[in-house]
Every structure is written in C-alpha cells, then in structure tokens.
Amino acid sequence: MKLQGRVAIVTGGGRGIGRAYCLRLAKEGAKVVVADLNMENATMVAKEIENAGGVGFAWKVDVSSESETQEMAKAAIDQFGNIDILVNNAAYMAECSYKPFTAYTVEEWERCFAVNVKGAWLCTKAVVPSMMNNGKGKIINISSGTIFAGIPMLLPYISSKGAIAVMTRSMARELGEYYINVNCLSPGYVAGTEGAQAMAGKPPGMEEALSSLQCIQRQQTPDDLVGTLIFLASDDSDFITGQLIEVDGGLQMP
Ligand SMILES: NC(=O)c1ccc[n+]([C@@H]2O[C@H](COP(=O)([O-])OP(=O)(O)OC[C@H]3O[C@@H](n4cnc5c(N)ncnc54)[C@H](O)[C@@H]3O)[C@@H](O)[C@H]2O)c1
C-alpha cells in the first residue's frame, strides 16, 4: 500500500471520477474524506470504502464557500489529525449547457468559475497550513483535455479548466519551499459519468470521433485515471511539481 495512514480529501468524491479516486486512495491505505455538495452520495462512497475495509468519512461542502472549505479542513484534522493529500476534483460540469458563448448568462459563468476555480483555490488555501505543519503535502488539481482542443460551446467550463492548469504552476512555485507538490491531472473524455452525460452526443458522434483519434482506441473510464492520481499522491512523485499530466489514451500531445 503506497499511502498507508495518509489523510486525503477528495472534493466531488460522491460520484463519477471522484468516487473512483476515493476508492483507490482508500485501497492504498489512505483515510479518505469524501467531500461533496451531495451528502447522500458522499455517505454512500464513505460506506463503500468502509465495507471494503478502508477508512472513509463523508463531509458536505460547497467548495465555492470559504467558510465551508475551512470547516472541511477542520473536520478532516479533528477526525484524522492532519491532511496529506487534496484532490481538487469537484466541478460545475453536469450543469453546463452546450451552447454558443453568446448564449451563456453571467450567472452561469460566475457559478462555473466560483466552483471550478475559486473552489480549488479555497480548498487549497484551507489545507495548506496543515501541510506546511507536516513539512510535506500533495495537491492534485483536475483540469481537462478540452483546454488543448479549443472545444466550442463550453466556454465557461473550458476557460475555468484552463485557469486551473495555470493556477497549478503558480501554486507549485509558492509551495515548493514547504515540500508541497502541486500537479494537475487532465483527463480525456470519460463517458458515463453524470458530468460527461451532460455533454453526451453533443455534437453527434463525438465519443466515437474522440476514441478514433486516440492512440489507444477505446473509451476512457474513471479507473484509467486512478493510477496517475495515486502516483501524484505518493512519495514516488516527490520531485515532480507544477506539471500537467494528460491521461487520455494519447488523444492530445500538448
Ligand atoms: N467526465 C469527463 O469526461 C471529464 C473530462 C475531463 C475532466 N473532467 C473533470 O473530472 C472531474 C470529475 O468529473 P466527473 O465527470 O466525475 O463529474 P461529475 O459531474 O459526475 O461529478 C462532480 C462531483 O462534484 C460535486 N460538486 C459539484 N459542485 C460542487 C461544489 N460546489 N462543492 C462540492 N462538490 C461539488 C458533484 O456533486 C459531483 O459529485 C471534474 O473536475 C471534471 O471537470 C471530467
């Protein structure tokens, strides 16, 4: 087990790719805080972890709220003593419409940035004091392969995911002196999650077209991402920081 006794927070851990991260982190021995806006889903994932013999703890958070992210960090410390790993995975994605940028409202834009960009910043801000105290930490931001492709009709989402990729570099420079690594994992199109479902079939044939452009020509699943996530969360990646790692079967080669 690569992460025995470590404490990990996964935002948006209640379903989809975040759930897969939680289950694998727990399997590697981490105590996992499953943090999600949807407490019912978070509780189910925490139970799944416990049923498999791991340690899971469900917590309700809206990552766009500073007070709630501070409470989340405090709850993790009260429960487990410290925080070693943060996965900034929660996203405003399922709610995204697929439409021209002229049709997005200011409210949609602001909510997207509040969750995807401000949320990742606030969660990181909340956990960093514990990591500084430990003299070590791992922050894994989640971007998206869409940022390299100029995908149309998703302007707020794609812009927010570009911001996360850039934020990663700046955070890595500020936190290196504390031996806190900040990296960014960039998935390709993972069909089947509720987030991805919101975009399924738009435009028609998109899934098939993407798969055919990959070197490895099959659809990506959440489990395709967990190996890289564990690597970035473990000591094996101690000298890697500020990097964006594309996990997409060779679709993009940025
Ligand atoms: N599915 C894909 O094809 C794909 C591709 C590239 C990147 N990603 C990224 O991977 C991550 C997970 O994607 P997914 O498909 O599993 O998404 P999803 O929509 O299925 O799950 C997102 C989770 O985040 C939670 N969440 C939403 N807003 C929140 C908030 N304000 N506070 C706390 N939790 C909140 C939701 O309740 C949900 O559990 C996202 O960051 C997404 O941008 C996904």
Automatic annotation (TrEMBL):
Regions that span the bilayer: none
UniProt key word Oxidoreductase: yes
One MF term in the entry's GO annotations: oxidoreductase activity, acting on the CH-OH group of donors, NAD or NADP as acceptor
Superkingdom of origin organism: Bacteria
Family matches, as InterPro entries: NAD(P)-bd_dom_sf (IPR036291), SDR_fam (IPR002347)
UniProt entry keywords in alphabetical sequence: Oxidoreductase
Listed EC numbers: 1.1.1.311
Enzyme class: oxidoreductase
Record has Oxidoreductase as a keyword: yes
Family designation: Belongs to the short-chain dehydrogenases/reductases (SDR) family.
Identification of the protein by name: (S)-1-Phenylethanol dehydrogenase
Source species of the chain: uncultured Desulfobacterium sp
Gene behind the chain: ped
